[in-house]
Design goal:
- This protein is an alpha/beta fold and about 220 residues long.
- The protein folds into two domains: about 10-145, 3-Layer(aba) Sandwich (Rossmann fold); about 155-215, Arc Repressor Mutant, subunit A (Orthogonal Bundle), CATH 1.10.10.
- The chain has helices spanning about 20-30, 40-50, 65-75, 90-100, 115-125, 130-145, 160-170, 175-180, 185-200, 205-215; strands spanning about 10-15, 35-40, 55-60, 80-85, 105-110, 130.
- A six-stranded parallel β-sheet has the order 2-1-3-4-5-6, sandwiched between helices.
- Helix 4 (about 90-100) links the parallel strand 4 (about 80-85) and strand 5.
- The N and C termini lie far apart (about 40 Å).
Length: about 220
Protein backbone atom coordinates (compact mmCIF):
# COMPACT_ATOMS: atom_id res chain seq x y z
CA UNK A 1 0.00 0.00 0.00
CA UNK A 2 1.41 3.40 -1.00
CA UNK A 3 0.66 5.31 2.20
CA UNK A 4 2.51 8.51 2.96
CA UNK A 5 5.38 8.64 5.44
CA UNK A 6 3.05 9.31 8.36
CA UNK A 7 0.95 6.26 7.49
CA UNK A 8 -1.95 8.29 6.12
CA UNK A 9 -3.91 6.85 3.23
CA UNK A 10 -3.72 8.53 -0.16
CA UNK A 11 -7.23 9.21 -1.42
CA UNK A 12 -8.46 10.51 -4.78
CA UNK A 13 -11.91 12.10 -5.11
CA UNK A 14 -14.12 11.83 -8.20
CA UNK A 15 -17.36 13.84 -8.33
CA UNK A 16 -18.81 16.23 -10.89
CA UNK A 17 -19.82 18.82 -8.27
CA UNK A 18 -16.92 21.06 -7.26
CA UNK A 19 -18.60 22.26 -4.05
CA UNK A 20 -19.16 18.69 -2.91
CA UNK A 21 -15.53 17.80 -3.63
CA UNK A 22 -14.39 20.82 -1.61
CA UNK A 23 -16.58 19.78 1.32
CA UNK A 24 -15.34 16.21 1.32
CA UNK A 25 -11.73 17.33 1.00
CA UNK A 26 -12.13 19.63 4.00
CA UNK A 27 -13.85 16.98 6.13
CA UNK A 28 -11.44 14.17 5.26
CA UNK A 29 -8.27 16.22 5.53
CA UNK A 30 -7.80 15.38 9.20
CA UNK A 31 -8.02 11.65 8.47
CA UNK A 32 -6.35 11.01 5.09
CA UNK A 33 -4.33 12.75 2.39
CA UNK A 34 -6.62 13.77 -0.48
CA UNK A 35 -3.98 13.78 -3.19
CA UNK A 36 -6.18 14.74 -6.12
CA UNK A 37 -9.65 15.17 -7.53
CA UNK A 38 -11.50 15.06 -10.83
CA UNK A 39 -14.87 16.25 -12.07
CA UNK A 40 -15.15 14.22 -15.27
CA UNK A 41 -14.61 10.62 -16.32
CA UNK A 42 -11.66 11.30 -18.70
CA UNK A 43 -9.95 13.52 -16.11
CA UNK A 44 -10.45 10.86 -13.44
CA UNK A 45 -8.97 8.09 -15.56
CA UNK A 46 -5.91 10.16 -16.43
CA UNK A 47 -5.22 11.50 -12.94
CA UNK A 48 -5.84 8.23 -11.10
CA UNK A 49 -3.40 6.47 -13.41
CA UNK A 50 -0.79 9.16 -12.77
CA UNK A 51 -1.19 9.44 -8.99
CA UNK A 52 -1.99 5.80 -8.09
CA UNK A 53 -3.89 6.47 -4.85
CA UNK A 54 -4.74 3.85 -2.26
CA UNK A 55 -8.48 4.48 -2.46
CA UNK A 56 -10.68 6.36 -4.94
CA UNK A 57 -13.95 7.86 -3.73
CA UNK A 58 -16.11 7.51 -6.80
CA UNK A 59 -19.40 9.21 -7.67
CA UNK A 60 -21.84 6.99 -9.55
CA UNK A 61 -23.78 9.42 -11.71
CA UNK A 62 -21.64 11.60 -13.96
CA UNK A 63 -21.65 12.34 -17.69
CA UNK A 64 -19.72 10.04 -20.06
CA UNK A 65 -20.58 6.79 -18.29
CA UNK A 66 -20.19 7.78 -14.65
CA UNK A 67 -18.34 5.75 -12.07
CA UNK A 68 -18.83 2.56 -14.04
CA UNK A 69 -16.77 3.96 -16.93
CA UNK A 70 -13.93 4.88 -14.55
CA UNK A 71 -13.95 1.40 -13.04
CA UNK A 72 -14.00 -0.29 -16.43
CA UNK A 73 -11.02 1.78 -17.59
CA UNK A 74 -8.93 1.26 -14.45
CA UNK A 75 -9.72 -2.35 -13.56
CA UNK A 76 -7.11 -4.00 -15.80
CA UNK A 77 -4.43 -1.33 -15.85
CA UNK A 78 -4.42 -0.50 -12.11
CA UNK A 79 -5.93 -3.47 -10.24
CA UNK A 80 -4.25 -2.47 -6.96
CA UNK A 81 -6.26 0.77 -6.71
CA UNK A 82 -9.37 0.25 -4.59
CA UNK A 83 -12.64 2.05 -5.23
CA UNK A 84 -15.35 3.10 -2.80
CA UNK A 85 -18.56 4.36 -4.42
CA UNK A 86 -20.02 7.49 -2.80
CA UNK A 87 -23.41 8.44 -4.21
CA UNK A 88 -26.78 10.06 -3.56
CA UNK A 89 -28.33 6.93 -5.05
CA UNK A 90 -29.31 3.96 -2.90
CA UNK A 91 -30.91 2.04 -5.76
CA UNK A 92 -30.21 -1.67 -6.01
CA UNK A 93 -29.11 -1.62 -9.64
CA UNK A 94 -26.57 1.14 -8.98
CA UNK A 95 -25.09 -0.69 -6.01
CA UNK A 96 -24.91 -4.06 -7.75
CA UNK A 97 -23.64 -2.58 -11.01
CA UNK A 98 -20.73 -0.77 -9.32
CA UNK A 99 -19.76 -3.80 -7.24
CA UNK A 100 -19.80 -6.06 -10.28
CA UNK A 101 -17.59 -3.52 -12.04
CA UNK A 102 -15.02 -3.78 -9.28
CA UNK A 103 -15.84 -1.32 -6.47
CA UNK A 104 -14.95 -2.61 -2.99
CA UNK A 105 -17.80 -0.79 -1.27
CA UNK A 106 -20.73 1.54 -1.67
CA UNK A 107 -21.93 4.23 0.73
CA UNK A 108 -24.39 7.08 0.32
CA UNK A 109 -23.66 10.78 0.74
CA UNK A 110 -25.63 10.87 3.99
CA UNK A 111 -22.65 9.19 5.67
CA UNK A 112 -20.86 11.18 8.37
CA UNK A 113 -17.25 12.31 7.87
CA UNK A 114 -15.97 9.96 10.60
CA UNK A 115 -17.90 7.03 9.13
CA UNK A 116 -16.58 7.83 5.66
CA UNK A 117 -12.99 7.96 6.92
CA UNK A 118 -13.50 4.58 8.61
CA UNK A 119 -15.01 3.13 5.42
CA UNK A 120 -12.01 4.34 3.39
CA UNK A 121 -9.59 2.67 5.79
CA UNK A 122 -11.53 -0.59 5.71
CA UNK A 123 -11.58 -0.62 1.89
CA UNK A 124 -7.84 0.10 1.84
CA UNK A 125 -7.36 -2.92 4.12
CA UNK A 126 -9.24 -5.12 1.67
CA UNK A 127 -12.65 -5.21 3.35
CA UNK A 128 -15.96 -4.70 1.55
CA UNK A 129 -17.98 -1.84 3.02
CA UNK A 130 -21.73 -1.22 2.72
CA UNK A 131 -24.47 0.24 4.84
CA UNK A 132 -26.82 -2.53 6.09
CA UNK A 133 -29.53 -1.78 3.52
CA UNK A 134 -27.11 -1.72 0.60
CA UNK A 135 -25.43 -4.89 1.81
CA UNK A 136 -28.79 -6.61 1.49
CA UNK A 137 -28.93 -5.74 -2.21
CA UNK A 138 -25.52 -7.28 -2.77
CA UNK A 139 -26.35 -10.42 -0.83
CA UNK A 140 -29.54 -10.86 -2.86
CA UNK A 141 -27.66 -10.53 -6.12
CA UNK A 142 -24.56 -12.58 -5.37
CA UNK A 143 -25.64 -15.12 -2.77
CA UNK A 144 -29.31 -16.02 -2.96
CA UNK A 145 -29.76 -15.23 -6.68
CA UNK A 146 -26.30 -15.44 -8.28
CA UNK A 147 -27.61 -16.42 -11.69
CA UNK A 148 -30.17 -13.64 -12.08
CA UNK A 149 -28.79 -10.97 -14.42
CA UNK A 150 -29.00 -7.36 -13.35
CA UNK A 151 -29.16 -6.20 -16.97
CA UNK A 152 -32.50 -4.86 -18.17
CA UNK A 153 -32.65 -4.05 -21.91
CA UNK A 154 -35.14 -1.21 -21.38
CA UNK A 155 -33.32 0.22 -18.39
CA UNK A 156 -29.99 -0.03 -20.21
CA UNK A 157 -31.28 2.52 -22.74
CA UNK A 158 -31.21 5.19 -20.05
CA UNK A 159 -28.17 7.14 -18.96
CA UNK A 160 -27.19 7.20 -15.29
CA UNK A 161 -28.65 10.68 -14.90
CA UNK A 162 -31.90 9.70 -16.61
CA UNK A 163 -32.24 6.78 -14.20
CA UNK A 164 -31.74 9.04 -11.21
CA UNK A 165 -34.35 11.52 -12.49
CA UNK A 166 -36.75 8.64 -13.15
CA UNK A 167 -36.26 7.26 -9.64
CA UNK A 168 -36.96 10.59 -7.97
CA UNK A 169 -39.92 11.22 -10.26
CA UNK A 170 -41.38 7.86 -9.33
CA UNK A 171 -40.97 8.73 -5.65
CA UNK A 172 -43.27 11.69 -6.18
CA UNK A 173 -40.69 14.47 -6.40
CA UNK A 174 -41.71 17.60 -8.31
CA UNK A 175 -39.39 18.84 -11.08
CA UNK A 176 -38.18 21.64 -8.81
CA UNK A 177 -37.34 19.15 -6.05
CA UNK A 178 -35.50 16.86 -8.48
CA UNK A 179 -33.47 19.83 -9.74
CA UNK A 180 -32.48 20.72 -6.18
CA UNK A 181 -31.64 17.13 -5.25
CA UNK A 182 -29.41 16.57 -8.29
CA UNK A 183 -27.93 20.08 -8.52
CA UNK A 184 -29.28 20.62 -12.03
CA UNK A 185 -31.73 23.12 -13.57
CA UNK A 186 -35.47 22.51 -13.90
CA UNK A 187 -35.05 22.76 -17.66
CA UNK A 188 -32.47 19.95 -17.55
CA UNK A 189 -34.88 17.84 -15.50
CA UNK A 190 -37.59 18.40 -18.11
CA UNK A 191 -35.18 17.36 -20.85
CA UNK A 192 -34.26 14.16 -19.02
CA UNK A 193 -37.92 13.28 -18.42
CA UNK A 194 -38.70 13.90 -22.08
CA UNK A 195 -35.83 11.63 -23.12
CA UNK A 196 -36.97 8.87 -20.74
CA UNK A 197 -40.54 9.05 -22.03
CA UNK A 198 -39.30 8.83 -25.59
CA UNK A 199 -36.90 5.94 -24.98
CA UNK A 200 -39.46 3.91 -23.02
CA UNK A 201 -42.30 4.89 -25.35
CA UNK A 202 -44.52 6.22 -22.60
CA UNK A 203 -46.70 9.29 -22.46
CA UNK A 204 -46.72 10.53 -18.85
CA UNK A 205 -45.04 10.40 -15.46
CA UNK A 206 -47.67 8.03 -14.02
CA UNK A 207 -46.74 5.33 -16.52
CA UNK A 208 -43.10 5.96 -15.68
CA UNK A 209 -43.81 5.60 -11.96
CA UNK A 210 -45.53 2.24 -12.44
CA UNK A 211 -42.69 1.07 -14.69
CA UNK A 212 -40.09 2.10 -12.11
CA UNK A 213 -42.03 0.44 -9.28
CA UNK A 214 -42.23 -2.83 -11.21
CA UNK A 215 -38.41 -2.82 -11.43
CA UNK A 216 -37.97 -1.84 -7.78
CA UNK A 217 -36.26 1.40 -8.75
CA UNK A 218 -38.29 3.52 -6.34
Amino acid sequence: MSETEGGRLRVFLVDDHAMFRAGVRAELGVHVDVIGEAGTVPEAISKIAASEPDVVLLDVHMPDGGGRAVLDAMRRSHPHVRFLALSVSDAAEDVIGLIRAGARGYVTKTISPDELAAAIKRVADGDAVFSPRLAGFVLDAFASRPDVPVADPELDQLTNREREVLRLLARGYAYKEIAKELYISIKTVETHVSNVLRKLQMSNRYELSRWAADRRLV
